[in-house]
C-alpha cells in the first residue's frame, strides 16, 4: 500500500530545519520523483536513503521494487517518519551514516545509496561510499552544484581534483540535472546538482590502492606544482623523477594515468617502507 502523498506545504509543517545539521528540506514533488528515478540498477535489491527528513524523496523510493532503508541523525525527523510511514518503521535507523557500521543493517549484501545530502558533509559521504564500494554498485543524490560538477569533472579543468580522480577510478560519474534554491525550505544560497555514480565492472585497481590514494592527495594538495615537486617527500630516485609524467601537473592526468604513476612509484615505495 502506497503512502498518501502530501502537498509540499503539509510535508514540511512537521519538522523544523536545523542549521547545524545542514538541513534544507526539498519541497518539489516532481524533483523528488526525478531523483528517485536516478536509481536504475538491477544488481541490488536494497536501497539506503541518507537524511530522509520528512520523506519527500522516501515515498517515491517506496514505489520502486526495492527494500528501502533510511538513516537519519535528527530525532525529530525520525519521530515524524515513524508516525507517517508506519510500514517503514523497522527500516528507520536513527544513526550517523558517517559513523555507523552499515554491515549491521545489510550484512554483506549489495545496496544502493541515495539522498538529498547536507552540503556540510557531502564529500565525507562520498569518501565513505568509496570505502564501501564493494557493496555499493550505484549511488545518486543531490549536492551543492559545485561539488557535484567537481566529482564528475574530467582532467584538464580547474575544478578537477582529488574527489574527481578517486571517484572516477571506481565509478562512472554522470552529472544529471541542476536544481534551483527555490524548491527547498529554507532555500540554500546556491544551486544544487544531482549526479549518479555507477560502479565499474572491474573496480579493483591494478596497483596498491592505499598508495594510489596517497599519491592523488599529495599531488592535489600542491596542485600548482609539477608532480616532480609535489611528490618530492617520497624520496624517489632521480632516474624515476626524470620520467616525463613527473613534469605534469595533477589536473593534467586522468585517473588511468594516476594508476600508471602509482605503478611506477610502487616498487620504490614498497622498498622504502
TrEMBL record:
Supply one GO molecular-function term.
16S rRNA (adenine(1518)-N(6)/adenine(1519)-N(6))-dimethyltransferase activity
Question: Where's the Ribosomal RNA adenine methylase transferase N-terminal domain?
Answer: 31-201
> What does the record give as the organism's lineage?
Bacteria, Pseudomonadati, Bacteroidota, Flavobacteriia, Flavobacteriales
E.C. number(s) listed in UniProt: 2.1.1.182
Q: What class of enzyme is it?
A: transferase
Q: Which residues bind S-adenosyl-L-methionine?
A: 24, 26, 51, 72, 96, 116
UniProt-annotated location(s): Cytoplasm
The protein depicted here goes by the name Ribosomal RNA small subunit methyltransferase A
**Main site of residence?**
cytoplasm
Q: Which CDD domains match?
A: AdoMet_MTases
Catalytic reactions on record: adenosine(1518)/adenosine(1519) in 16S rRNA + 4 S-adenosyl-L-methionine = N(6)-dimethyladenosine(1518)/N(6)-dimethyladenosine(1519) in 16S rRNA + 4 S-adenosyl-L-homocysteine + 4 H(+)
Provide the family line. Answer: Belongs to the class I-like SAM-binding methyltransferase superfamily. rRNA adenine N(6)-methyltransferase family. RsmA subfamily.
